[in-house]
Amino acid sequence: MVLTSENPVPDELFDLIIAYFVDDRETLHALLLSSRRLFLRTVPILYKSPFQLIEHSRQWNREEKDKRSALLLALLLTSRRREIAIQSAAVATTTMLTTATTTPSSLTAGHVHHPQLPRYPYRHQQSFLTATTDYLRFYTDQHNISLLRPLVTLRSMASESKTYILDESRSMTDLQTDVAISLNMYRSEKVKVIGQPIARIPLIVHYLPKLKSLVRLELSEIPYDCQIEPTIEFIRVHDACHNTLREIKIKGNDDSTHQQYPGHTNLIRIVQAMREPEVVDARHWREATDVLDQIPVDSLRTLLLALSDTPPINISVPEYLARCGKLERLRMRISDKGLFAWATAEARISMNQDHQRALSRSLLLPTSRLHHTSSSSSLSSSYLSTPPTSASWQYHHHHFYDEEPEPWLQGPPPIKSLELVGDDKSLLSAVQDAVDAFRDTLKDLKAVSMAVTMEYEPEFNIKPLTWSWPMSQLTVLDLEGEIALSFEFSALGFCPMLRTLRLSLPPYMYSTSENGDQLNDMKARIPMICLATSLMDLELYGKWTVSDALLGKMVKAMARLTNLYIVDCVEYTMGGVLEVINKSKLLASLAISKWLCIRQPNQQLLQDVRTKYPHIELVEA
User: Fold this and answer.
1) Range of the domain at 30
2) Its domain of life (predicted)?
C-alpha cells in the first residue's frame, strides 16, 4: 500500500499494529525508526520503563547491560537538560534584554541551573549526541534500579571522551541521590511508579503536591534499625491529597541473620498506612509471613510473599485467604494441604445457587406466558389463594432476584495467578483444590514441590493431579518436582487456551536408577500431550520419553508451537529434530541435548540446519 497525503493510514490502524507488538521490543524499536507517526506512538511504550527492558533481556551479559544502562541514563539526562536548557535560555535572554549586567559569556557557560533540580556541568561532544526528544517525560514507571554501575560506567566513558554530563565534584553516593531525585521529580505529575531506598523518601516530600498520578511505591535498602515514620507520613499525606497510591513493594535485608533482628515486622505499619492497598509485593521482605494476618484484605488483589519461609503456626492461612474476597494473584510457600478447601466449598455453593437461579428462570418463563392467555386469571388466583411457603418457587424467585445474596454466598475470589511452593502431599492437595475452585478464572499456575531438593525417591505413592472440567482461562501451566511427575496429561484436553507448558521432573528422575515401571507409565501417558493443540511454548525437563514418532505427532497437533525445549529427554534422534524443524511453520527456538550432536555426522548436519534455517535459534544444552 502506498502512503499518500490524500489517503493517509488512519491512526486507529497504527494503534492496532503497535498493540499487536506491544511485548516485542525489537519490533517496536524498528517501528520507532520507520515513521514519525509510529515514533510518537511507540516511544511512550519503550521508554515507560526502559531500564527494566535492559535488565530483563536474555541477549546481553552483565557488562553489556551496564554499558547500555549507562548510555540510556546519558540519553535521559540530556533529554532533561535539553528541556531545562531551553527554559534557562529563555530566562537568560529576557534578563539580558532588561539588564545591562548580563554578559554573553554567561549564556554560554557550561553550567545550566534549575531551581528545583541538581546542577550538572554539561559539555557536548560527538560521543554523546544531544537528545532531540524529551524521552524522560515518558519515563513514568521508575521502578527501583541501582544507579551505581551505570554511573561508574558513564563516568569512565565520559573521561575517555572528555564529555562531562555529571558533576565530577560530587561523591558517588551524593551523585546517585542527585540523579535519582532528578529523574523522579522531572514532570513528577506524570510519574506512576517511584522506587527508592527508604532513606530518600524524605527528599521527595517537597514534591508531594505534584505526585498526583503516583500509583506504586517501591522501598529498598531498609536496615533493621531504620526510621519508618517519614515513610508512613508520606503515604498518609499522599492519600489525603490524591488518593491514588494502591501498590507497595518492600525489600528488606535478605540475609542469614534476619532471625536475630525481628524489627522488620514493624514494616507492616507502612502497608497499613495505605488507605486502599491493592498490591503488596513482599517477595524480598522475609518477615512478612510472620505478620501475614495483619495485611489489610478489603482491597487486596495481589499478594506476593517470599518462598523461603512459611507462616507461623499461630496464623491460620486458610482463614486469612478466605477473607481476601478480591484476591487475583497469590505467591507463597504453603504447609497446609487444606489451603483452598474453603474455596472449593464456596465454589460448590455458588454453583448450586447458579443452578437454582437457572431452575427459577425455567419455571418463571412458562408461568409468565400463561398470564397472557384467556385462562390465566383462574391460574393466577389458584396460585395466590395459598400463601407462599419457603418451598414454593415464588419465595425462591423473590430471594434470588429482589434481595442481594449474603457475602459468604458470593463464591471464591477471582484468583487468576497462583505460584505455590510446598511439600509434595500438601502442595498436591492444595493445587487440586485450586484448579477446582478457581476453574473459571485461573490463568497462570506454577507449583514447585519441595522434593526437588531431595536426592532420593520418596516412599509414598503420589496421587494424580488431574481435572475433568473446562479450564477456559488457563494459559500457563508450570509444574516442577513430584507434582509434575503426578500430572495426568489427559487434563490438557480441558485447557483450550493453554499457551505455555513447563514440566520439570524431580532430581532422582535424571539418573539411571529409576523405577522401570514408573518409566513405562510415563511413556504410556506422555502421548496425550498432543491434546494441548494451542501450545506456543513447550519445555520438558528431565527424562521424559519423547520419541521421534511423538515429535512428529506433536508438530502436527501443535501448529502454533514457537519454542520447544527437550533437553535431557530420551529416545529422540537427530531425524526427529529435523522433522520438527522442517514441519514447524512458526518455530523460532529449539533446545536439544548436547550429547545428540557429539558425533561428527550429526555435528555437520546441525551446521547445515543452522545455515538453512537462520531464523531458528538452535541451542545445544
Assistant:
1) 1-46
2) Eukaryota
